[in-house]
Amino acid sequence: AKAEGKHNFQFYKEEMNTKAQERLLLENKLRHAVESGHFVLHYQPQVDLRTGELIGLEALIRWIDPIQGMISPLTFIPLAEETGMIGTIGDWVIRKACEENKRLQLQGFPEVKVAVNVSAYQFRHGDHLCDVIKSSLASTGLQAKHLSVELTESILIEDVEDTIAQLHSLKGLGITLAVDDFGTGYSSLSYLKRFPIDILKIDQSFIRDILDDVNDEAIVNAIIGMGRSLGLTVLAEGVETIAHRDYLLHQKCNFAQGYLYCKPKPADELLECWEAGSLL
Ligand code: C2E
Ligand code: CA
Ligand code: CA
Ligand code: CA
C-alpha cells in the first residue's frame, strides 16, 4: 500500500508538470504567433429580426497556426488575458476590423457596424483603448457610427466610477457600446441605467433552450422588457432555428445573430456571398 501511495504521488506530480508544461508551451507559441501576426478575423452577420436586413458584423478572432491550423479563441483568449498579450492582440483586432469594414464598404458591401470584442484588461489601461479606437478610425477612414464595442458584464461590475468615465469617452467618439453575454453576470436594472450603453446582447446559453426551459424563457423575456424600458436595443445571440427566431420576433426582440442566419466568415467570403445574393 505504501509503494502504491508513493506511485500515485509521483503520477500526480508528473501530471501537474505536464499541465504546467503544456501551458508554458502554449504561452510561448502564442507569443510567437503575436510576433508573427498569425491571426485573422472572421465576421458574423447581425440582422434586424423584423426585416431580416443586415445591420452589423461581429469580428471574431482566429489563430491560424502553420501546423495546427485554426485555433479557437476559447483556447487562447483566457491565456492572452492572463499574460497581458491581449493588449497587443486587442489593439490589432480593433485596427484590423476598422480596416476590413472600410474596405468592404469601398467594395460595395452594405455600410453596417463592425463590432469588436474588448476584454477587461483593455479597459484598465487609462486612455489607451480610446486612443487606439480614435487612431484606427482616423487612419482607416471608417466612420465612428460604423464601429461598436462589445464588453462583458463583468467590466461593469469592477471599478464602476472609472468604467463609467471610460464609457463616456468612448461614447464621445461616436461609437456604439454593447454589453455581451448579458444575463450571465449580476447587473441590475438600476445599475445598468448608470452606464451609457446602447445594446444588450442576450447570452446564447439562454436562447438555446428557450422553447423548452421556462426559466430561460422568463430570463429572455425579462431582458427584452428591461431593454425596452431603458430604451436599449436587444440582440439575441446563438439563434440557430426558425423556432428561436419566431419566438424572439414575437417577443419583439430587435436584433439577432446565429447559425440560422450565417456562420462567421472571412471578409472576402462575406463579400462574395453578398455579391452572389446568398449572404442571408
Ligand atoms: P462571444 O463574443 O460570445 O461570441 C459568440 C460566439 O458564439 C462565437 O464563438 C461565435 O462563433 C459563436 N456562435 C455564433 N453563432 C452561434 C450559434 O448559432 N450557435 C452557437 N452554439 N454558437 C454560435 P467564437 O468565435 O469561438 O468566439 C468565442 C469567444 O471568444 C467569444 O464569445 C468572445 O468572448 C471571445 N473572442 C472572440 N474574438 C475575440 C476578440 O477579438 N477579442 C476578445 N477579447 N475576445 C474574443
Ligand atoms: Ca461578443
Ligand atoms: Ca456572447
Ligand atoms: Ca461568450
Automatic annotation (TrEMBL):
<protein>
    <submittedName>
        <fullName>EAL domain-containing protein</fullName>
    </submittedName>
</protein>
<feature type="domain" description="EAL">
    <location>
        <begin position="23"/>
        <end position="278"/>
    </location>
</feature>
